[in-house]
Amino acid sequence: MSVAFRRESDEEHKEPRFELPLPAGPNIVTPRGLRLICDQVLVLEQSLAADPAEPESRQRELRYWNTRAATAELAPPPPEGEVAIGTRVHFRLDGAERTIDIVGADEADPAAQRIGFAAPLAQAMIGAESGDTLPFNDRPEAIEILAAFPIPAEDDA
């Protein structure tokens, strides 16, 4: 009999459900980032405990956040005046002054001026010190570091 006429379960014809992709590289986090990851795990665990029939997507999300919590590496305190993970950087880019926080991948929120340490702008600045000028986007001296200091504790909450 032709395969076209056999009725197998619908499950075998569905696309496989893949895990959520993990960002490449180490999972370096700020203290705030670690708290956010742990909070996300707690919220998802409570949601699944309240309704064990939650969709597979919620369970997949919990596996993602559990993995992120298990692999999190707390960034060392940044050196004073040097750009690093956990640093607030005040800089000039193409004549416009900006301030950003350099954070871990899961904490990144460009709309809130938090960029992940793997972002090209962060990569261009990490290791620089106040007063340095840096190349960016194939333009020499595109970035001028005006100030770099640890993200204040009150903003880390």
Automatic annotation (TrEMBL):
Record-level GO BP terms: regulation of DNA-templated transcription elongation
Superkingdom, natural source: Bacteria
Keywords of the record: Elongation factor, Protein biosynthesis
Stretches assigned to the Transcription elongation factor GreA/GreB C-terminal domain: 79-136
Gene3D superfamilies according to UniProt: Transcription elongation factor, GreA/GreB, C-terminal domain
Entry keyword annotation includes Protein biosynthesis: yes
GO molecular function: DNA binding; translation elongation factor activity
Protein name: GreA/GreB family transcription elongation factor
Lineage, top ranks: Bacteria, Pseudomonadati, Pseudomonadota, Alphaproteobacteria, Sphingomonadales
